[in-house]
Amino acid sequence: MAKEQQTPMGSGFGPESTVADVLEGIDLTGRFAVVTGGYSGIGLETTRALAGAGATVAVPARRPDLALGELKDLPRVEVGEMDLTDLSSVAAYVRSLESSGRRIDLVINSAGVMAAPLTRVGPRGWEFQVATNHLGHFALINRLWPMLSSDARVVSVSSRGHFYSPMRWDDPFFEHSEYDRWAAYGQSKTANSLFAVHLDRLARDAGIRAFGLHPGVIATPLGRYLSDADLIAAGAMDADGNLTPNFGKSPQAGAATQVWAATSPLLEGKGGLYLNDVEIAAVFDPGTEQGDVQEYAIDPDEAARLWAWSAELTGVNAFS
User: What is the DSSP letter of 25?
Assistant: First the structure.
């Protein structure tokens, strides 16, 4: 079913649309949002946009002091401490939100890492990228479930990087095979998309919808692990080491698709979709090489398998 739903709708927006464009005429006064990674890159632009439209925004941060510095001039922004690679930290952060008794209307999972060297985290030695990008967010959303409002939206920020790899079920943590940082990143981004597919399937009867998306190519701190050779290959730097002017999207355009996913009336009654350039993405056709989402990243059976695997690993499942 997911594949058939992936049909562009004619949103009226495009790759150059910004958060200001997609929020025009939208009032978020009284709405409560949680934005992971909401103090850096497109996450920071997302926090600015939501707060500017009237929302209160909670920003969990591995480095709360840095987050407070970046967000100090914004109204209605609350910073708390949370490390996505530490499930006890995720649980503690959720308890801090529960104490306020508020309902959450929007969650945008924008935090992430890309092309990191092999790093193992936690007591079980999970591979860093899938642990951060997927498993930490899986635990967060499942713990937040009782706090979500009846019309909440959950946005899982994936990437076209999912083209690098489907789920590596035979060795997801690279315990028995040579580590490939791009395959590890791709797997984690496939997981982000599949997570949204299955969460939407589980939550839609409660009025809660979920979306995955590619934000675009944006020069942000996400590229901290990239070498000069990586940047040259991507077209972000020339052979003399000069950064390419106007490379990719601006942060304001890069944040637009996730803000649209979280707030747009055009998406009422929809969910489980993969978005790109502020539009519903078409499924990739290998014959024409057109389309922005691989079929394996929206496959309902793969999504259900990922959910069961993630629940077993994290010990958290709001729907069990």
Answer: T
**Does 135 map to a domain?**
yes
Q: Does residue 41 fall inside a structural domain?
A: yes
Q: Classify residue 218 by its DSSP letter.
A: B
The structural domain count of the chain equals: 1
CA angle 95, 147, 189 (to 5 degrees): 85
We report the CATH number of the domain holding residue 277 as 3.40.50.720
185 belongs to the catalytic site:
yes
Among 39, 93, 185, 274, the active-site one is 185
What is the pTM (predicted TM-score) of this model?
Answer: 0.94
DSSP 280: B
Inside any domain, residue 177? yes
- What are the tens digits of pLDDT across the range 246-262? 657 999 999 999 999 99
Cβ–Cβ under 8 Å, residues 105 and 32: yes
Which structural domain range is residue 47 located in? 2-314
Taking only the tens place, the pLDDT of each residue in 259-302 is 999 999 999 999 999 999 999 999 999 999 999 999 999 999 99
Give a yes or no: residue 81 inside a domain: yes
The C-alpha atoms of residue 105 and residue 101 are separated, in whole angstroms, by 13
Residue 249 DSSP label? B
